[in-house]
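User: Show me a protein chain along with its predicted structure.
Assistant: Here is one chain, sequence first, then C-alpha cells.
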Amino acid sequence: MNDPTINAVLDGDVKSIEWVGMEFTPSLIDGGGADTGGPNRLPHGRTTWVPGSSSTPAILTFNPVRRPQGQPWDNSYNYNTLTRTKLTGSYYGHQFMFALPTPKDVTNCNAVEFELELCEAGLLYNMAWQWKPSNIDGPPGWRIFDKSKEKWIAQPQIPFTAPIPGAFVEVSARFRVDRNLKQTWHDSVVIGGKYFPINASAAAPMKWSPKTWYLHHAVQPDSLGKGAPFSVLIKNWNARML
C-alpha cells in the first residue's frame, strides 16, 4: 500500500495503536526447537535474552545443540504476547533493527527471523520476514513466510549485501489483514531506507481453538547445524496497527 497517510501511521509519524520498545520486554518465551513446520520434540539448546535499555540494544544469544545426522537443525522460536484483546485493525506495521555483533556470529548464523502473528478465533494471520546470509536452502536473501504452506518465499527483487559485524540493518514491514478472504497481505517493506513493493498474499490457516485470540511478536535465530552459538542485537523493535 503506497498510501502516504497509511504509511505515515504504520511508520509512526502519525500515532496509532502501537506497541513500542519491544526490545525492552523483560523476557521472551522459548517455544522450543522450531523448524519451518513448527516446534518439535528433538534436543534443543539454550536461548538467553537480555532486554535492551535506553542506551543499549537487546541481546539474544542462542546455544544450539548439534543433532544427529538426518534430523533438522536446532533453531529457537522466542515470543511474547502483546495482547489477547480482539483487535479490529486491518493494517499492521512491524519495525526492527538488528545486527550480528562479531565475525564469529556472522559465521555461525544461518538466518534471523522476525514475526508478528495475529490469531483470531484460532485463525492465524502471520506476518514474518527472514534475513538469510547463508547459502543453505537457496542463495542469501530476504524471504517472507507463507503460513498456510509452511514455506519461506524468496524476494529476489531486494538486493542482499554481505553482513557486516556490528552494523545494524533497519527494516519497516507493512501488512494488511483481509478478514473477508481470510488472507494476510505482505504489502511492502523498507530496508535501509529503500522501499520495495511485495504485494503477496497467503491464506490464514486454522491452527488453534476457536477460543484463541492474541497478537504476539517473535524472533528466531536459525543455527547452521554445527552446534555453534551466536548472538543477535535488536533495537527499535515496534509494532503498530491501524
